[in-house]
Automatic annotation (TrEMBL):
<keyword id="KW-0443">Lipid metabolism</keyword>
<protein>
    <recommendedName>
        <fullName>Beta-ketoacyl-[acyl-carrier-protein] synthase III</fullName>
        <ecNumber>2.3.1.180</ecNumber>
    </recommendedName>
</protein>
<dbReference type="GO" id="GO:0004315">
    <property type="term" value="F:3-oxoacyl-[acyl-carrier-protein] synthase activity"/>
</dbReference>
<feature type="region of interest" description="ACP-binding">
    <location>
        <begin position="255"/>
        <end position="259"/>
    </location>
</feature>
<comment type="pathway">
    <text>Lipid metabolism; fatty acid biosynthesis.</text>
</comment>
<comment type="function">
    <text>Catalyzes the condensation reaction of fatty acid synthesis by the addition to an acyl acceptor of two carbons from malonyl-ACP. Catalyzes the first condensation reaction which initiates fatty acid synthesis and may therefore play a role in governing the total rate of fatty acid production. Possesses both acetoacetyl-ACP synthase and acetyl transacylase activities. Its substrate specificity determines the biosynthesis of branched-chain and/or straight-chain of fatty acids.</text>
</comment>
<feature type="active site">
    <location>
        <position position="254"/>
    </location>
</feature>
<dbReference type="Pfam" id="PF08545">
    <property type="entry name" value="ACP_syn_III"/>
</dbReference>
<feature type="active site">
    <location>
        <position position="284"/>
    </location>
</feature>
<dbReference type="GO" id="GO:0006633">
    <property type="term" value="P:fatty acid biosynthetic process"/>
</dbReference>
<feature type="domain" description="Beta-ketoacyl-[acyl-carrier-protein] synthase III C-terminal">
    <location>
        <begin position="238"/>
        <end position="327"/>
    </location>
</feature>
<keyword id="KW-0275">Fatty acid biosynthesis</keyword>
<comment type="similarity">
    <text>Belongs to the thiolase-like superfamily. FabH family.</text>
</comment>
<comment type="subunit">
    <text>Homodimer.</text>
</comment>
<dbReference type="GO" id="GO:0005737">
    <property type="term" value="C:cytoplasm"/>
</dbReference>
<dbReference type="GO" id="GO:0033818">
    <property type="term" value="F:beta-ketoacyl-acyl-carrier-protein synthase III activity"/>
</dbReference>
<dbReference type="InterPro" id="IPR013747">
    <property type="entry name" value="ACP_syn_III_C"/>
</dbReference>
Amino acid sequence: MSRAAVVRGLGAVVPPDAVTNAMLAERMDTSDEWIRTRTGIGQRHVVAPGVATSDLAVDAGSRALKAADVDHVDLVVVATTTPDHPCPATAPSVAARLGLGHVPAYDLAAVCTGFVYALASGAGAVASGLAKSVLVIGAETYSSILDPTDRTTSVIFGDGAGAVVLGAGEHDEPGALLEFDLGSDGTLADVIMIPGGGSRQRSGGVPADPADVYFRMDGKRVFRAAVQRMAGSARVVLDRAGWRVDDVDRFVGHQANVRILRAVAEELGLAPDRLVVNLDKVGNTSAASIPLALADAAQRDELSSGDRVVLSAFGGGVTWGACALVWPDIAVF
């Protein structure tokens, strides 16, 4: 039997500057009530000028390494939609700044499903023997790609980073990543997109419209697809793990919208008190949202060693994925 990838440590960080709903209402046609009613978000954090995704990734990665009590890993995977540059990848820079030497490092782009995809990638590296330990980071600076005048996106997204260290272990020990389900549907690529800046636009020989450099989302279509795919993917990993819905102690869904999370719970028949929710404090942080939610729940004693946990996410591409694990007794920084 192949080795299991086991969660050994968790680190998370958000920028110090918080933007409240009231602050947004001062510069656009919105209100605290409008935002909370539709999203459940009360504030989000944004980076200061000059701070990039790699800066958050290094901070979260350093915390995860400290939590795991290690100073070296064999592989670094950074899930992000907002890399420091279109080229090269951000992960090698992160690895170098963390003092990890010449380890392999790469970015993974699956938008809000990025962290689950990156976990699966790291778990595969451990199972195959390619690596004995992996640093998996989800990091985003969405404030750099949002149209500040668009209330459909600017009120939702925030910046942050979360990371875990995976180590080789046994399948029956707490923290082992037990089951995964991943999927995509490229026919829905247009529901979450930055139209300009890529080879599709550039090869057409037409300059990008200034508005096309910003993130766009069709909220209604995303809502329907997210509920269906997050619930469906969760069912798959429950079945593969041999768990019933009632066996789940904590469901940690991508923190996109509180109505999506509640709808997923209803679709699964999961008690609402099993949901982990922290988007009210940090907003939607895309690939960083699940590790940030895990860290927040652990630090508030809402996640305990031995809890049966299901992670589930939906993002652009479109992509989706889920993972099942039993939560370990680990440090969180």
